[in-house]
Amino acid sequence: MSYTPIKRPKFSLLDRIYLKALGQGLCITLRHLVLALLGKSRNKKELGGSGIGVTMQFPEHRWDKHLPEYYRGAPALVRGEDGRERCVSCQLCEFICPPRAITIKPGTLPADASNQKPEKGPVEFEIDMLRCIYCGMCQEVCPEQAIFLTKEYLITPETREDGKNDKARLYEMGGTKRGLVNKWNQYK
Known about the structure:
[4Fe-4S] cluster 1 binds at residues 87, 90, 93, 142. It comes from Akkermansia glycaniphila. It is built from 5 helices and 5 strands. The protein is an alpha+beta fold. It starts with 12 loop residues before the first helix and ends in a 14-residue tail after the last helix. It has 2 domains: 13-58, no CATH class; 75-182, 2-Layer Sandwich (Alpha-Beta Plaits).
């Protein structure tokens, strides 16, 4: 097996003692300082700042209107237009979840007057938000479009038990969603 030796570049004295990099960083900092003192700092209006600095004043101003369309926040379950559960408890989201944050206990939902046949649904559905990596694979794999990643980013639990979202909490976060639901399609 042969190898090709790689020649290392020769650094000057300024590069070796990092003076050049320190000078560049200092120039950037001074430029921000001058702009802040003149009241012309970047994103002053968008961040709700006073013009001194570029930091968002967090409790009063939030990122909600600045989040991009592709932002992946906390996962949540959604209901259909008529309030019925969309989840058919197929467990695909549980199987595809890389950190194994989703736990589903499948079962049969009680029949009511609006549907003649018994429906499958989750008896228990839990997502451990401390393990979730917000990859979005659960949303992609769901055949009934029952799980979505919301724009929610303020999800700091106080205890480990608060970090586990149960079925009721997930439906509360998700709300209702319009559109075709395959399991209610009479022609399927």
